[in-house]
Design a protein that fits this description.
Strand content: 25-35%
Structural class: alpha+beta
Oligomer: single chain
Shape: globular
Order of helices and strands: HEHEEHEEHEEEHHEEHEEEHEEH
Largest sheet: 9 strands, antiparallel
Length: 384
C-alpha cells in the first residue's frame, strides 16, 4: 500500500494554514484537474530524480494480454466520418494546423500500442520533446540521434483524494499530500519506410515503509500501467495535430476493442536464458522493445535488421529516505548507492508465428550467469 496521504500532525499544520489565510483575508483554491486522469503539471517540487534501476524481482499482479490481429484506429478517419455525416456528399479534408503532423494513427497489436506518423523522426522529435515539457516533466534523457527521450520521476497529482480539507485550503497545504507513487515515461521514435513509429513505455515506483515505526521509506518498482501509456499516446496525438475529440474517440474505440483480449503465454527456456512467445518478427521486435521500456533497461543501441538490442543494466539499491514526520521537521538522510553496470545483447528471432528473445553477453556470445537469467525472467514478465 502507498504511504498515507496526510497524517494527524499534518492536519494540525493544515488547520494553522487555514487560520492564517483567513486572518489575512486571502482565499485559495486548488487548480488540480480533478476530473482528469493525469496531472503532472502541478507537480513542481514534488518531482524527484530517483536513480532507481530495474528491480529484477518478478512483480505480482501484472495484467498482460495476448497478441491479436493488428488493430488500427485512425483519428483522421474519425474526423472524415464526422464531416461527411454533417455534409453528405462532400469530400472531407481535415485541416492541419501549422507545426502539426499529418497521418497520425494509433496502432495496437495485443497489448502493444504505438503511433504511426507519415513524417520522418527529424520532423516529429521536437514536437515530442515539447509535449513532455508542456505536461510538467523534465527530460533526463534527450537523444535526437537515437530517437530516445526519458522523463524524470514525477507524481500524478490527479490521484490525490479531493477531500474537504484540501479543497478548502488548496495549495497552502498541497506539499503535505503525497500519493506515494512516481511515474517515469520513455519515448522511442523509430524510423520506418513510410515515416516514424512512436512508442511510450511507463515505469512506476511505489513508496513503502521499511520499519515498524514508519519513519523510513524506500521506493520499490510497481507494475507498468498500459492504460496510462495509452492515455499519454492519445494526448501526444493532440500535440501532433489530431483534434482533441478525435483523439478521445480513438482512445475509447481502442479500449473497447482491447477489452476481450486474453492473457498470452511466454515460455522461459529450460536453461533460463531465452523467452519464447507467439508472433512474427515485427510483432516480436515491438513487444521486446516495449518490455525493455517498461523494465527500465537502458538501450544503448538497436539494429532492427539484425534483430539486436544492446542494453545496459544498472544494479543499484534504491535510496532510503525519512518518513513523513522526519520530512516535516526538516531532517533528511540518505544512503549512497553503489552502481555495477552490466551490459547484455538481446537477440530477437522468429520462425513463422513463433518468436524468441535470447540473452547474450555484450560480445554477442552465449552466456550463462545468474544476472543473464534474471534479465530473461524480467523480460518474460514484461512480455506478458
Amino acid at each position: 500500500m502507498p504511504i498515507q496521504h496526510i497524517s494527524a500532525r499534518q492536519t494540525l499544520v493544515a488547520s494553522a494554514c487555514v487560520l492564517s489565510a483567513l486572518a489575512t483575508g486571502c482565499s485559495t483554491v486548488s487548480n488540480a484537474l480533478s476530473n482528469d486522469k493525469v496531472d503532472y503539471r502541478s507537480t513542481g517540487a514534488k518531482a524527484v530524480n530517483l536513480e532507481v534501476p530495474p528491480d529484477l524481482t518478478q512483480l505480482s499482479g501484472q495484467a498482460r494480454y495476448a497478441l491479436a490481429s493488428p488493430g488500427t484506429v485512425s483519428a483522421n478517419n474519425f474526423t472524415q466520418q464526422q464531416q461527411l455525416a454533417q455534409n453528405p456528399g462532400a469530400t472531407a479534408a481535415p485541416a492541419v494546423a501549422p507545426g502539426t503532423v499529418r497521418g497520425v494513427t494509433l496502432q495496437r497489436d495485443g497489448q502493444v500500442r504505438w503511433l504511426t506518423v507519415d513524417q520522418p523522426p527529424e520532423q516529429v522529435y521536437n514536437l515530442v520533446r515539447d509535449f513532455w515539457t508542456e505536461n510538467g516533466f523534465e527530460l533526463t534523457t534527450d537523444q535526437p540521434q537515437a530517437g530516445l527521450l526519458e522523463t524524470n520521476w514525477s507524481e500524478n497529482r490527479a490521484k490525490l483524494q479531493q477531500d474537504g480539507l484540501r479543497n478548502l485550503v488548496g495549495k497552502i497545504i498541497d506539499n503535505l499530500y503525497d500519493t506515494g507513487e512516481r511515474d517515469q515515461f520513455r519515448t522511442r521514435i523509430e524510423r520506418t519506410a513510410k515515416g516514424s513509429e512512436i512508442y511510450i513505455g511507463h515505469h512506476g515506483l511505489i513508496e513503502i515503509y521499511t520499519d515498524g515505526r514508519k519513519e523510513q521509506t524506500t521506493w520499490k518498482a510497481r507494475p507498468s500501467d498500459p492504460a496510462l501509456e495509452a492515455e499519454m499516446l492519445s494526448r501526444l496525438m493532440v500535440k501532433l495535430g489530431t483534434p482533441k475529440e478525435a483523439a478521445k474517440a480513438t482512445l475509447t474505440a481502442d479500449q473497447g476493442s482491447a477489452a476481450a483480449i486474453t492473457a498470452p503465454r511466454t515460455r522461459l527456456s529450460t536453461d533460463g536464458l531465452s523467452v519464447g512467445f507467439s508472433g512474427n518478427f515485427d510483432q516480436a521486435w515491438r513487444r521486446v522493445g516495449l518490455a525493455l521500456d517498461r523494465g527500465g533497461f537502458t538501450v544503448e543501441d538497436r539494429d532492427r535488421s539484425a534483430g539486436v538490442y544492446d542494453v545496459r543494466l544498472a544494479s543499484t539499491k534504491p535510496e532510503e529516505k525519512p518518513g513523513l514526520f522526519s520530512r516535516m521537521s526538516g531532517w533528511f538522510s540518505s544512503k549512497p548507492a553503489t552502481d555495477t553496470l552490466t551490459r547484455y545483447r538481446l537477440k530477437v528471432a522468429s520462425q513463422g508465428d513463433a518468436a524468441s528473445v535470447t540473452v547474450l553477453g555484450s560480445d554477442g556470445k552465449a552466456i550463462n550467469t545468474d544476472g543473464a537469467k534474471d534479465v530473461a525472467k524480467q523480460l518474460s514478465t514484461n512480455l506478458e
